[in-house]
Amino acid sequence: MPQTIKRTALCALAGLALSAAFCTPAVGQDDILRPPAEAGRLGGRLVVAQSSEPKTLNPVTALDQPSRDVIRRLTADLVHIERDTQKTVPALAKSWTATRDGKSLTVQLRRGLRFSDGAPFDADDVVFSYKLYLDEKIHSPQRDLLIVAGQPMRVEKLGPYTVRFSFAAPYAVAERVFDSVAILPRHLLEKDYQEDRIAKVWTLATSPDRIAGLGPFRLKQVVPGERIVLERNPYYWRKDAKGQKLPYLDELVFLTVPSRDAQVARFQAGETQAISPLSAENFAALEPEQQARHYKLFDVGPGMEYNFLLFNLNAGLESKLPAVARRQKWFLDPRFRQAVSAAVDRAALLRLVYRNRGAPLVTNVTGGNKLWINAALKPTEHSEAAARKLLQAAGFSWNRDGGLLDASGQAVEFSILVSSSNVQRSQMATLIQDDLKKLGMNVHVVGLEFRSMVDRVVQSHDYETAVMGLGSGDADPNSDINFLLSSGQSHLWRLDEKQPATPWEAEIDKLMQQQLITVNYRQRKKLYDRVQEIMAAETPVVFLASPNILAGASQDLGNVRPAIIDNYILWNADELFWHTPTGKH
Amino acid sequence: MKRSSKLAWATWFLAVLLLVVIFAGFFAPYSYDTQDRDHPYARPSRVHWVDGQGKWHIRPFVFATKNREGSFTEYQEDPSQTYPLRLFVAGEPYKVLGLFRGHTHLFGVPVPGRIFLLGADGFGRDQFSRVLYGGQVSLFAGVLAAVFSAAAGLFLGMVAGMFGRPLDDVIMRVGEIFIALPWLYLLISVRAFLPLQMSAVAAFTLVVMVIGLVGWGRPARLVRGIVLSARERNFVLAARGFGAGKFYLMRRHILPAALGVVLTQMALLVPLFMMAEVTLSYLGLGVGEPFPSWGSMLANAQQFHVISSYWWMLLPGLAPAPVFLACHALADVFQERLKTAV
Question: What is the pTM of this model?
């Protein structure tokens, strides 16, 4: 896993959930179940690698990416956001109708569906599932996004295949909230729920016949620490244009391969047949053998990950960490941060770290986010002269050896923390160090084990600067709300703020709150453009670059359409098929 | 090989290596942190005597290189531009032992030409220069940690052997605990708690000292064994009979007996601790960028694309091998001497 601090399922989903109304202006939605692009052939197995073993197979408590990757192949949601178009499509819900006041949504379920163990599915399962997600005692990560205006949504059964969702306040794009909220089998879990054991069910040790979902696959076998084997769910409800039941694959196998480089080697050897994400360097290394080894590589363009140099602007460090506080004086001056930003050679960074398979950043909104990026913002120009001018204006000067001194004559020297296991970010830190050396700053790069680094940034605040990255779960502004709001959990530069510390942070807070309840895309875009403008001007962090989403898959695998939102390759696992299913897969 | 010649070549080799490494600034054509961002992963430069027109030159030279079209890390030589290799050229300033400044390098080519004897890394930094500078960290770490560990082992082993129970028991049990410590985890946690304001080199020295101090258990046990057996020897008993005190006995009779063992141990510990440094740096937890060490240079080889595309990035991994061989040769000689002495 590249150590992007993934916001929990919660905020990724929150983004999807609240995503713009412009996609679905109609009050109702009919069944427009789209068949796969290409009708495939049955059979074969697809093997992919995961960086770690899933912690659980329980959709109610799963937080980590490997767990979610497996669970989403086992389960289905009412309404689904298609990863390639980012539009909502009906899934278990055949259609839905919102009331004019936007306070309730009535969902018609598909009839005659069965769970992977053969038990029938109806409205009781939906009501039961949402009861679990909303139960305060279970602490499901999905719970927060099912709360509107401080009140949990109400879920009522109107008929055997009709369910009504009601909200305390208007909620215009409510159907997006259903994405990735897995519907659970009441017949298997009700007893556990009554006995308060729901958080402990569906572990890797659970027998496969005790786990059932409505997804394209069902669990076949778990070999601890080694692999998880899923097999075709014979009761799956999607069909292709020819009326053939999906999925096409007999088996989907997740291998646990901790190192990224080992994953690449396995892919190249043909032991796994799909891989994502790939680093640009590994992409380049795999490229020459595409034909000889029968795989195809995909560059989907900029994704949602943004990397940045973070300054420690946390308040109250004087007594606790005087050495950090001394250096913080410099970081608190926006001109210093702007000077650093101007000194960083992003073009070199893109070339050396991402082989130009990436895009420079001005704010947290990446080039891949075409709907929301503020195109009026110019890329930060790399200019040592401009950086020197800014530093001079902020009272800095240079000694005879070219070393930078602050107004009190203290030499400017600080450290950059970086996760030692993240090659790309370590490279960025080394490049920044070299760029800042030209300004006379003496910068140390300190590589720490990932968790030690996050502890320093999030808990003890004992750091000066750090190279980090965040990955938005969605293109929508709301997916970054935790990063932007002064009270947000990933407002990394100044955590645990009671009040916005600066007027511009207060303005961002106001704009973000406002866009939450604004339905019109244009108005919302205007608000979010202003947020980006402020972020670019104030430079609370120095935004660096965003890598392209790179993936690879066997040439024989059909319907491969990598998306820029995870899971990049497996999001349409039910449509993937082998052109030659009897081949050596 | 005869013992004396073994000793001679091992000593000479280590002496020359230490000299080269200490004067890395002079022997290396570039500084360890000079980036050439237009030449990431450049191949080792080819030194030519024949130019583009087929003309021979007395002075060897390198061609200019430029990116192959559509590639980031493949280069082609441009025979129209040659850069002669010169000795004792003026170049980037450097410091020897942090004291003496210099800017003369043993060899180099005129700018904008570049000579990469062992190729360049992902930032276009000269691998050959970095191997020389990296030796400063790796060798220094090995020797320093071995000295610490041997000194602590010698002292505690002698005290334990000489004073007997209960002090012996306490020291030996604590020693066993230290032997059983999972040192890698210990070092990772020590590294995580060091203040960030410490310079990279200071932080690293501290970690090395910890490596050394943790390793005292084994030499202490050996020294204690020597002391216990030496204590009962006739000449020691005789000396004691003449009224010699404990400290006199330790200094006069037991220390010389233990010294050979300690020297042998040290010759074995140096490679061991060098490996510890290499391991730590390999995990990215050694001396910080941009300062190189053999381990941190080798760490690049963890990456799939490096192993598959740039073989010269593996060369730093070979650097410790001759050092280890020399150290083990020394240990052999010491041990042989010890046997004959006894």
Answer: 0.81
